[in-house]
Design goal:
Length: about 290
């Protein structure tokens, strides 16, 4: 793997470089350990929270021609994380796409609880990430509908759920959602596709600066959107996670985009968030009510 983090339970993901490792860990115990006159460098796997060893971080460590990388280790990281075989076997950085997407972790799994807590504590930002990628405004009602379904399906227990994809897992396991009545981002790629390929779509101005409402020209608008084809692909030490986002009208494909999941995005915006807006506060109220 080409990224690391400093502790379990957070959606942090940092590129493995000598500078980043030194800045984040101070090269101090337990991230740096000396045994038999040899120093080894350790961190936490961003995906499965298991201990990892950083290989080739410093040229004097070993002769390597490749960039430094992380590999899982069964040796616990004192005071930080304990090795879990279950989490290792289902880690996308160890084995991409190893299981049925319906497979779940055992009840009480610590990592599942981390995901549950993140969804509850940062639901406002998770919704922000989702609507930016969909180019569709997520209303309070829609947000509540998605979160109730995630709760009822125990979405935090799925092996496919990880720190980076919480926004997309809200929608991935859902039925296709109707486009009618949704607010579409003005001048977005989705809006352009609707205007070019849509048959019974009509876009209505509703006095908003950035959105227009989707209506029908006549009769019933048979148009939906959904996420499908959740996939991990390893490219050397880098693992890329993607979804396919589709908008269809009847049997006609109006829009399709491969969404690449941004590593560490949720952690990045949680660190930058200041005082919550009225909308963000309302979304947190919804999360506290449901979870």
């Amino acid at each position: 793997m080409d990224t690391f983090k400093t502790k379990p339970g957070i959606p942090e993901e940092i590129l493995i470089t000598e500078e980043n490792f030194a800045n984040e860990t101070g090269r101090q115990f337990p991230y740096a350990m000396k045994k038999n006159e040899k120093i080894t460098y350790k961190a936490v796997c961003p995906a499965c929270d298991n201990p990892i060893q950083i290989i080739g971080l410093f040229k004097r460590e070993e002769e390597v021609k490749r960039k430094p990388y992380g590999r899982h280790t069964t040796i616990d990281l004192p005071g930080l994380t304990v090795y879990s075989e279950e989490d290792y076997l289902n880690c996308p950085y160890h084995n991409p796409n190893p299981h049925n997407s319906d497979a779940k972790r055992k009840p009480g799994n610590k990592k599942s609880q981390y995901f549950y807590n993140l969804m509850k504590e940062h639901f406002d930002l998770i919704v922000l990430i989702l609507e930016k990628k969909l180019q569709i405004y997520v209303s309070y009602h829609f947000a509540e509908t998605l979160l109730r379904s995630w709760r009822d399906n125990e979405g935090w227990r799925y092996y496919d759920t990880n720190y980076n994809n919480l926004p997309y897992m809200l929608l991935f396991a859902e039925m296709a959602r109707p486009m009618f009545g949704k607010l579409i981002q003005k001048d977005s790629n989705v809006e352009k596709a609707i205007l070019e390929k849509g048959i019974n779509f009509q876009l209505e101005d509703v006095g908003m600066d950035y959105y227009r409402k989707i209506k029908q020209r006549d009769g019933f608008l048979d148009a939906t959107f959904y996420l499908t084809h959740h996939h991990f692909e390893r490219k050397g030490e880098h693992t890329e996670e993607t979804y396919l986002y589709r908008v269809v009208e009847g049997k006609n494909k109006i829009y399709e985009e491969k969404i690449v999941v941004e590593k560490g995005r949720l952690y990045e915006i949680t660190q930058k968030q200041g005082k919550r807006s009225a909308r963000e506060e309302r979304l947190i109220e919804i999360a506290n009510k449901i979870l």
